[in-house]
Every structure is written in structure tokens, then in C-alpha cells.
Q: What sequence folds into this?
């Protein structure tokens, strides 16, 4: 608890959480990233599942989105870090917050597992007449993880200490 | 009235129902705005250069429409559960006007330019940029509405 209190008492963080406008603006930015970059993730997954965007090659799609997803990821983590640390005392006992962090960890593990066999092997996927199962598994897991991610994010607000 | 009360009861009696409606609302706008943004992304020439904006729009549009329907109904449920609060909210009406503008723009100007055979790159970029701005404003409006409740 005291560590949490010290974190949120850091000068600029306490100014930030007390600001009427800064807090909702940062939160809106966090949310907008879900729409823009979450949308790119979703569309990539729909393509990997062979559901739509069929005339766009997997290679073209993954290469086009990659730099933007990275930018989005940095903004999302940056704004998220700001939101959580400025209210560290409220977040540190919140089970939804920690579940969300575990899911974030699982998303990183997902990337590590599937990058070498799916996301960097897109030419191979494009040459195959049907999208290989490993790519479909990667897409379904990604959809499940990201859905859990934003759901937990929303539920953070529903937990109170009483 | 009866419908309004029934929905309000369901949502108020259980926190989880309100939370569920919110999650559908968020998931829905991620799909809706994301599927529009990918068309804008192409119009801005940021990527997907092997395919035309018209073709990408054709793929995106069914997802956009289904998602917007989900967003609409989950939003309506949220609104009906606390009508009195939304009606005095300062940001809520602004959000609704911006939303109306974004929807009209999306299915008229945006659609028209995205499906043009050979639109000028400048026109495409402006149309896509305005589309992104409008939808970003709707998302900001939604969050600020929640903050003022």
C-alpha cells in the first residue's frame, strides 16, 4: 500500500490525477487506440481466419499494419501506465487490474510463440491454398485474449474495496 | 415507457448487465471504427497499396454496419437505464450531434470518394483525415459523457 501511495504522490502524477481535463483526455486516447489499433489487430485476425479481405495478401496486410501497431502499442502502454500509476492505491488491490496485466503477459507470450511460425512466415501462408491451421489458432487466441483484455479494462471501474 | 422501465430494471438490478452493455459498446466501436479506419488508412496511402480503397471498403462495410448496430443497441440500453442523467449531461448532446455528422459523412462523402475510380490523392487524403477526426471525436465524446455522470 505504501509503495502505491508513494508512486501516486510523485509530483507530476498527482497533478495529473487532480486535473479535470488531463485524466479523461488520456483515457480517451487509451480508448481511441483500442478502436484504431485494436481494429487493425481484429482485421488481421479476420484475414488469417480467411473470413474476409481475401484479395489482400496476408503479407501486405501484416507488413502495412506492423509499424502502426507498434506506434499504437507504445501509446496504449504509455497512457495506460499514466492512468494506473496516478491512482496506484486504487489499482494495486484491484483484481481486475491484475487479471488484465496477466492477460497482457499472455499476449506477449502469444507474440513470442507465433511470431516465428506465423507472423514472419506470411509468404508461406499466402502460397497455401487454405490458411494453415497454425495461423487460424494464432488468430482465434489473439481474438480471445484481446476481448478479455478490453473487458477486464472496463471491469476495473466496477471493483470497490467495500 | 414499459420497455424503458424493463431495460432500466434489468440494468440497474445487476451491475454486470450495465458492464456487459458497456463491453459490447466498446467491442462494437472497436470493430466499427476499426473497419472504417482501415479504409481511411488506404486512402491516406499508409499501406495495403496492392488493393484499392473501393475493394477494402467493400470488405469492411458489412463489419462496419453490424458493429454499428451493436453499438447502437448497447448504447440505447445504457441510455435508457439512466435517462435522467444523460439528459442533463453537458457532453452527451454534443456527442450525439458529432455522431450524426460522422454517420452521415461516412455513408455519403466518405463512401462516394472511397469508391471513385480515380480520385485525386489530395481529395482522398482530406476525406479520410476528416473521417478519422470525426470518429475520434465520437470516442472522446463518449468517454467525456461517462466522466460527467
A:
Amino acid at each position: 500500500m505504501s509503495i502505491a501511495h508513494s508512486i501516486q504522490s510523485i509530483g507530476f502524477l498527482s497533478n495529473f490525477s487532480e486535473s479535470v481535463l488531463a485524466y479523461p483526455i488520456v483515457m480517451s486516447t487509451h480508448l481511441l487506440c483500442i478502436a484504431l489499433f485494436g481494429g487493425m489487430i481484429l482485421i488481421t485476425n479476420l484475414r488469417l481466419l480467411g473470413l474476409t479481405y481475401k484479395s489482400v495478401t496476408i503479407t501486405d496486410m501484416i507488413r502495412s499494419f506492423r509499424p502502426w501497431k507498434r506506434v499504437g502499442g507504445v501509446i496504449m502502454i504509455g497512457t495506460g501506465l499514466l492512468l494506473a500509476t496516478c491512482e496506484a492505491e486504487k489499482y494495486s488491490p484491484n483484481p481486475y487490474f491484475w487479471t488484465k496485466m496477466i492477460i497482457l503477459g499472455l499476449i506477449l507470450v502469444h507474440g513470442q510463440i507465433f511470431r516465428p511460425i506465423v507472423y514472419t512466415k506470411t509468404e508461406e501462408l499466402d502460397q497455401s491454398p487454405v490458411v494453415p491451421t497454425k495461423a487460424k489458432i494464432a488468430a482465434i487466441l489473439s481474438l480471445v485474449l484481446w476481448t478479455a483484455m478490453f473487458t477486464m479494462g472496463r471491469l476495473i471501474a466496477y471493483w470497490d474495496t467495500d | 415507457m414499459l420497455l424503458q422501465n424493463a431495460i432500466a430494471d434489468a440494468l440497474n438490478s445487476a451491475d454486470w448487465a450495465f458492464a456487459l452493455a458497456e463491453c459490447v459498446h466498446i467491442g462494437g466501436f472497436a470493430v466499427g471504427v476499426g473497419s472504417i479506419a482501415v479504409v481511411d488508412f488506404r486512402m491516406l496511402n499508409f499501406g495495403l497499396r496492392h488493393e484499392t480503397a473501393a475493394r477494402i471498403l467493400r470488405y469492411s462495410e458489412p463489419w462496419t454496419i453490424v458493429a454499428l448496430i451493436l453499438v447502437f443497441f448497447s448504447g440505447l440500453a445504457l441510455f435508457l437505464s439512466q435517462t435522467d442523467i444523460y439528459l442533463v449531461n453537458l457532453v452527451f448532446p454534443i456527442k450525439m450531434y458529432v455522431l450524426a455528422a460522422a454517420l452521415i459523412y461516412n455513408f455519403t462523402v466518405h463512401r462516394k470518394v472511397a469508391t471513385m475510380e480515380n480520385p485525386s490523392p489530395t481529395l482522398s487524403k482530406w476525406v479520410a483525415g476528416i473521417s478519422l477526426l470525426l470518429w475520434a471525436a465520437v470516442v472522446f465524446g463518449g468517454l467525456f459523457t461517462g466522466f460527467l455522470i
Q: What stands out?
A: Chain B has a mean pLDDT of 89. Residues 15-43 of chain B form the longest helix (29 residues). Chain B touches chain A at residues 15, 19, 22-23, 26-27, 29-31, 33-35, 37-38, 41, 46-51, 55-56, 59-60, 62-63, 135-136, 139-140, 142-144, 147 (CB under 8 Å). Chain B has one domain: 2-148.
